[in-house]
């Protein structure tokens, strides 16, 4: 039986423009009201996630910064498996490289981040990967479709899911995960049942156990409806 749902945010319960799908919000509330824990798992910052949890109506359990941080409930201890210093050092190398080509990198909410670095998608992520490789830097480049992130190896939403499951007294096999992007791959693999929404790229769909017909929030709602009876109602 499934006991918790772990869902990505951007591209999974929002549309391409980051507008939240209101039916997806209702669906999350239906789960929460049935006693099923819903974990929001995102590349976004903790403060963003806290506001989102409050307004959607979850208990504040989050995975943020692509697994760079996670926390059980609003008052739980914030765990920070990520390493911001390493990511920032790699970012400086990228910044210099792209400045040399006349392209400025735009950091996203750097002052609110504990673990990863996020910046605008005005460069080719594969070119950034090549620079990281050439300089032998210990970070990986993630393109979420909404931002590019730098993250230390071993840190992922999937690794955070496994740690969080332990804190919640659950097994990852009792969790369903839903996502849309390459920062969700490890999470879809770690969960007992992984779902990709239709807008997910092929590599993400391949990591999932099932792919929805609908895209974005419509796909999210479709997946929860289809598997609702596999959740243990308390
Ligand atoms: O922060 C991002 O780049 C994307 O966020 P997401 O993980 O909720 O899709
Ligand atoms: Mg996403």
From TrEMBL:
Its EC number is 3.1.3.18. The active site is at 8 (nucleophile). Mg(2+) binds at residues 8, 10, 180, 184. Substrate binds at residue 157. Catalyzes the dephosphorylation of 2-phosphoglycolate. HAMAP family: GPH_hydrolase_arch. Belongs to the archaeal SPP-like hydrolase family. This is Phosphoglycolate phosphatase.
């Amino acid at each position: 039986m499934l006991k918790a749902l772990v869902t990505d945010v951007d591209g999974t319960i929002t549309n391409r423009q980051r507008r939240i799908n209101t039916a997806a919000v209702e669906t999350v509330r239906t789960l929460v009201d049935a006693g099923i824990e819903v974990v929001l798992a995102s590349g976004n910052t903790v403060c963003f996630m806290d506001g989102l949890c409050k307004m959607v109506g979850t208990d504040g359990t989050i995975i943020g910064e692509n697994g760079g941080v996670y926390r059980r409930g609003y008052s739980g201890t914030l765990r920070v498996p990520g390493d911001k210093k390493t990511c920032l050092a790699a970012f400086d190398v990228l910044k210099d490289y792209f400045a040399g080509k006349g392209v400025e990198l735009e950091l996203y909410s750097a002052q609110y981040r504990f673990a990863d670095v996020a910046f605008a998608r005005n460069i080719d992520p594969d070119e950034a990967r090549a620079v990281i490789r050439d300089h032998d830097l210990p970070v990986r480049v993630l393109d979420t479709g909404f931002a590019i992130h730098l993250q230390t190896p071993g840190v992922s939403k999937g690794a955070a899911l496994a740690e969080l499951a332990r804190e919640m007294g659950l097994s990852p096999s009792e969790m369903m995960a839903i996502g849309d992007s390459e920062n969700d791959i490890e999470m879809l693999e770690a969960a007992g049942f992984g779902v990709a929404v239709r807008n997910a790229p092929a590599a993400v769909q391949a990591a999932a156990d099932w792919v929805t017909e609908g895209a974005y929030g419509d796909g999210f709602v479709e997946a929860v409806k289809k598997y609702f009876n596999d959740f243990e109602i308390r």
